[in-house]
Design brief:
Helix content of chain B: 25-40%
Distance between the termini of chain A: 32 Å
Low-confidence stretches of chain B: 293-300
Number of helices of chain B: 12
CATH architecture of the largest domain in chain B: Alpha-Beta Barrel
Mean pLDDT of chain A: 86
Number of strands of chain A: 16
Largest interface: A-B, 41 and 42 residues
Largest sheet of chain B: 8 strands, parallel, barrel
Oligomer: heterodimer
CATH superfamily of the largest domain in chain B: Queuine tRNA-ribosyltransferase-like
Strand order of the largest sheet of chain B: 4-5-6-10-11-12-13-14
Structural class of chain A: alpha/beta
Number of helices of chain A: 18
Order of helices and strands of chain B: EEEEEHHEEEEHEHEHEHEHEHEEHHHH
Structural class of chain B: alpha/beta
CATH class of the largest domain in chain B: Alpha Beta
Shape of chain B: globular
Mean pLDDT of chain B: 90
């Protein structure tokens, strides 16, 4: 087996049961985990300049090799000296393989042992992406962390396809490792597949751990599966993954999910939600979300979040943002700025509260603000029990924590529950999770 | 608001002045450019990046009160204390002018004796002086133009005359309704009629206003018709009060306006350039000469480049080598080209920053030329070398 040089140093600075706060030293930047990573799919994040992103506290941003390979192409990025140089982003970068995009965005994708054959959306040509190709693209883009090409299946699929995908992912990781030309300055993370099946997940984790990779991601979630299965998979994986390596839950997500996963021992997260939801005028606040398009916002003279020290909350009020959102570019910009600040503030709070030994209190305060009636969702209660965090002070005095929805709100579609939870009817699985 | 002329040229109407506006950190030299805004903020430049533009040059904004009719009531603005508070722009000077030349356009056919009509994103609106004054008193801008009935160049003499009558009447209404907020600039219209322009200017000059807003330009008159019309108006207006105009955007038009004696310009030129993917590259040489080094650029006319052009795909240099704007200090033409291709908003943000910065520097160079008496030579050199270049391009293509 190839000896892997590590250009990633993970130092754990604090713990509470399974939760950890760490310092992650990467080639371009030293990061603090738990950490949310904004998604800059095509080499930019929704109208925000680099210096605004730095001021907000972003440490790692994501690029996507699938999109970047199409435009501006990895040859150009290589000529520019890598994506960092091209974008002039001085901090850390992570590039995803594009497997998820190919499978979720394209109707014509064929997965074989060789790789993924898909039709380029730019010129319609048939292209084959092999694990080797994918790693070579990563190598030209030069991000600090690169994701192995995995055989992604939607979590709603059942049957032998999941097993096939898991074993293929394992075979592919060896090909990725062999093809990796820059282990000295790019960290290859393996992705745990296996759907929601604990047995398959276990086999996958063990085999990946044997490869002694710099870090591990938990994949195959963020696809609309029920929350109960979601947290159990995260718990199972974090229990089995090595302590001294970072754990990245891909496609997560909502602030609540991040708090739960951090309690269970995960470190890194990415999601398009904070920036994408600005299209709908949705702002992230401790109480959950604020729908700025709503007519009630037209006279509201409070800032979006009175507790938030970001530039937007310090200078603007809800009624002004209300008149901008969905109509003017500046509305999206200001809202993206606030939403990302919210996510980075959450990350910082998670990190510091663990380091300073007050993580359980942070979790309780967080849940209390989000569920003032004490109706903490059942899956959260269950997850916190496994995480060893006592949240009884935030739960209403029922025999067990109940999902407190009226029968009108519970829909047959799992996503109806998510919609009810977030007070929206606009989200579908595809619209939320499709592009990383 | 205080204004004083520092230097006036005898050879032309051009003058350098100093404008002190309550909220600005330092006095602003004129001729000056007002930044175009949408609902009070630049279209794309985030408030965090505004300070990176030259200051105090970039501290004057033009705001159209009509933008706020879409979802923001005047009572709410009043509750907060006015536009400066609401926009978080406590160090900026705000000039309120109803017409923004992009989305709030005067609709002369629908105007009545009761009010001016505008096409806006909320539909066609009739704005009466009383409503307008209410907006002004809630918004509390530093400067505001009185309500005008602007008409395009092709209307009948009768309609033109009516527009002057209405504009004068509305000016009197505005003055008597007295919003106790900001300095009023009397609106002067008159279309392309020298007589009507003269009449309007004479009447407005009799009123007690702090400055003048010269309207009715950029509505179909020829660029060659304008100097005479401007001269007719300027000859009558007292020298010591500032003159603001809108509808003049191109460098040639700015120079024309300055030569006539205009001090403040609000222009949508930068917005149009930005939307089109253009970046300004014309020379800021003191002499006005436009034979700059970048004349070999493809897809350009040496005054601006179109960053959508495939020629810039691999160009790892900034838009302009010695430009000190945020965009040129941090990003390359290749990156902006990529952003335009993938339809990312950051492209417009970066272009608006550069274009605004460049145009503000243009005004700076013009002021320096007026100060050392070389404005006319500067203007001639600028216009001729630009014309030469366009001619040369036309022959070669």
């Amino acid at each position: 087996m190839k000896f892997l040089l590590l250009c990633l140093l993970s130092q754990i600075l604090g713990r509470f049961n399974r939760a950890r706060a760490a310092q992650l030293t990467l080639p371009h930047f030293v990061c603090q985990t738990p950490l949310f990573m904004p998604v800059g799919t095509q080499g930019t994040i929704k109208g925000l300049t680099n210096n605004e992103l730095e001021r907000i506290g972003c440490q790692i941003i994501l690029g996507n090799t699938y999109h970047l390979a199409l435009r501006p192409t990895f040859e150009l990025l290589e000529e520019a000296g890598g994506l960092h140089n091209f974008m002039n982003w001085p901090r850390a970068m992570l590039t995803d393989s594009g497997g998820f995009q190919m499978v979720s965005l394209l109707h014509l994708a064929d997965i074989t042992e060789e790789g993924v054959t898909f039709q380029s959306p730019v010129d319609g040509k048939l292209m084959l992406l092999t694990p080797e190709e994918s790693i070579h693209i990563h190598n030209r883009i030069r991000a600090d962390i690169i994701m192995a090409l995995d055989d992604v299946v939607k979590t709603t699929i059942t049957g032998p396809r999941i097993k096939e995908a898991m074993y293929r992912t394992l075979r592919w990781i060896h090909r990725c490792i062999a093809a990796h030309r820059r282990p000295h300055d790019q960290n290859l993370f393996g992705i745990v597949q296996g759907g929601l099946d604990p047995v398959l997940k276990d086999i996958c984790v063990k085999s990946l751990v044997d490869c002694n990779l710099p870090g591990y991601a938990i994949g195959g979630l963020a696809g609309g599966e029920d929350k109960d299965s979601f947290w159990r998979v995260v718990a199972q994986c974090t229990a089995a993954l090595p302590e001294d390596k970072p754990r990245y839950v891909m496609g997560v997500g909502y602030p609540l999910d991040i708090v739960v996963c951090s309690a269970l021992g995960a470190d890194m997260y990415d999601c398009v939600y904070p920036t994408r939801t600005t299209c709908f005028g949705t702002a992230l606040i401790p109480e959950r979300v604020l729908k700025l398009k709503h007519r009630a916002m037209a006279d509201d003279t409070q800032p979006i979040d009175p507790t938030c020290p970001c530039m937007v909350c310090k200078n603007y009020i809800r009624t002004y943002i209300h008149c901008l959102v969905t109509k003017d570019a500046m509305g999206s910009q200001l809202l993206s700025s606030h939403n990302l600040y919210y996510m980075m503030r959450l990350s910082r709070n998670l990190h510091t509260s663990i380091v300073e030994g007050r993580f359980p209190k942070f979790v309780c305060d967080f849940l209390q603000t989000m569920f003032p009636k004490g109706d903490v969702l059942e899956w959260v209660c269950n997850a916190m029990e496994v995480a060893g965090i006592d949240i009884s002070s935030c739960c209403a005095p029922f025999p067990s924590c109940q999902e407190n929805y009226s029968s009108d709100e519970i829909g047959t579609n799992r996503f109806d529950k998510v919609n009810a939870y977030f007070g929206s009817s606009m989200y579908t699985r595809e619209s939320f999770y499709s592009t990383r | 608001m205080k204004f004083a002329v520092k230097k006036a040229l005898s050879s032309s109407g051009a003058r350098v002045g100093v404008l002190e506006v309550g909220s600005c950190p330092a006095p602003i030299e004129t001729p000056a450019l007002l930044l175009a805004t949408r609902k009070g903020l630049p279209h794309f430049i985030s408030p965090e990046l505004l300070p990176s533009l030259p200051s105090p040059d970039s501290n004057l904004l033009q705001v159209s009160p009509l933008h706020f009719l879409e979802g923001l009531s005047t009572t709410t603005i009043s509750k907060i204390g006015g536009l400066h508070q609401m926009l978080g722009l406590k160090q900026h000077g705000i000039a309120a002018v109803p017409r923004d030349s992009i989305q709030c356009l005067p609709e002369s056919k629908a105007a009545t004796r009761l009010g001016a009509s505008f096409e806006t994103p909320c539909g066609r609106l009739l704005i009466k002086p009383k409503d307008y004054i209410e907006m002004i008193s809630c918004m509390k801008p530093n400067i505001w133009a009185s309500l005008a009935d602007e008409v395009p160049a092709w209307v009948s003499e009768k309609r033109n005359k009516t527009s002057v009558d209405r504009t004068l009447r509305w000016l009197d209404d505005c003055i008597s309704l007295y919003p106790a907020a900001g300095s009023i600039f009397g609106a002067i219209v008159g279309g392309t009629s020298l007589e009507e322009r003269k009449r309007c200017a004479e009447e407005v000059a009799k009123r007690n206003v702090s400055g003048y807003w010269i309207g009715g330009f950029g509505l179909g008159e020829g660029i060659d018709e304008r100097p005479a019309l401007l001269r007719e108006v300027m000859d009558i207006l007292p020298d010591e009060k500032p003159r603001l105009t809108c509808g003049l955007g191109l460098p040639e038009e700015i120079l024309q306006g300055i030569a006539a004696g205009i001090d403040l310009f609000d222009s949508t030129y930068i917005y149009s350039l930005t939307l089109g993917g253009f970046a300004l590259t014309f020379s800021l040489d003191k002499s006005g000469e436009q034979h700059n080094l970048q004349s070999d650029q493809i897809g350009s006319d040496s005054t601006k480049i179109n960053l959508r052009a495939t020629a810039y795909r691999k160009d790892m240099s900034p838009i302009l080598e010695n430009c000190t704007c945020y965009t040129c200090q941090n990003h390359t033409k290749a990156y902006i080209n990529h952003l335009l291709n993938v339809h990312e908003m950051l492209a417009q943000t970066l272009l608006e920053i550069h274009n605004t910065h460049h145009y503000l520097r243009f005004f700076h160079v013009i002021r320096a030329a007026i100060q050392d008496g070389s404005f006319e030579e500067f203007r001639q050199a600028f216009l001729e070398s630009r014309r030469e270049h366009f001619k040369g391009e036309a022959i070669s293509t």
